[in-house]
């Protein structure tokens, strides 16, 4: 049953959106700032906490895994539309920052891919 885990996902999503709206209001933006990211972080932390405490039964764990897999593409795609509209309406600085972050991410891929590899003996 995939219904297990929906409560944790809903709690994390709504809490993340709330935090994002508070952060947006604090910096003077009339929108959500990082709510999806906060929600994803809460979902990861909540899942880890419940596993450590032994409170997850196998069906619940499978449900959380399923919904966390669905969370990323669906919710991020929904928020991406809003972010593009805001970036275009706010001027070129948002687009410039987005391009810089994307290019930096491309350059960091080789560095990040080396993390965790065992050193090979020559």
Automatic annotation (TrEMBL):
Transmembrane segments: 34-51, 63-81, 93-112
InterPro entries linked: Maln_transptMadL
Keyword Transmembrane helix: yes
Keyword Transmembrane helix: yes
Alphabetical UniProt keywords: Membrane, Transmembrane, Transmembrane helix
Pfam family, one: MadL
GO cellular component: membrane
Protein name: Malonate transporter subunit MadL
Organism: Maribacter algarum (ex Zhang et al. 2020)
């Amino acid at each position: 049953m995939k219904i297990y885990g929906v409560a944790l996902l809903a709690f994390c999503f709504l809490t993340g959106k709330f935090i994002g709206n508070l952060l947006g209001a604090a910096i003077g933006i009339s929108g959500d700032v990082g709510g999806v990211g906060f929600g994803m972080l809460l979902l990861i932390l909540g899942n880890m906490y419940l596993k450590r405490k032994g409170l997850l039964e196998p069906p619940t764990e499978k449900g959380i895994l399923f919904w966390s897999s669905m969370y990323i593409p669906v919710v991020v795609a929904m928020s991406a539309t809003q972010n593009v509209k805001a970036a275009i309406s706010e001027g070129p600085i948002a687009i410039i920052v987005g391009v810089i972050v994307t290019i930096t991410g491309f350059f960091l891929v080789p560095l990040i891919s080396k993390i965790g590899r065992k050193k090979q003996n020559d």
